[in-house]
Amino acid sequence: MAQFEIGQRVVCVDDSRTPHKSWHGFPVVKGEIYTIRENCVSVIFHDINCVRLEEITGRNMDWPYKETRFEPLQKTSIEIFNQMLVSKELEDVK
Fold it and tell me: Listing from the earlier edge strand, what are the strands of the sheet with 70-72?
């Protein structure tokens, strides 16, 4: 079962080289943010769940990446900070 949804933003947590480096068209970079384009099962990685990325497409670059190389991007809503400011302003008025 796929860990990510199409369009979901993820961050790379593992940019180690694979034994298949010679054929791998484009390395991912640890800490970089990517967008899931497709979930797939890779026969190259012995039926392991993989993803393809929006940012990496084109001839000789459309290889699957193990989904374990990524984690969901954690969004921080500005609304949390707005609520903190309102609470502080209310305390200051008292």
Answer: 65-66, 48-53, 33-42, 9-12, 70-72
Q: What share of the chain is helix, strand, coil (3-state, %, to 5)?
A: 20, 25, 55
Could you count the other beta carbons within 10 Å of the beta carbon of residue 72? 13
Distance, CA of 77 to CA of 9 (rounded, Å):
15
Q: Does 3 reside within a domain?
A: no
Range of the domain at 19: 9-93
**Domain count of the chain?**
1
Task: Give tens-digit pLDDT for 17-51.
Answer: 765 554 455 788 999 999 999 999 877 667 889 99
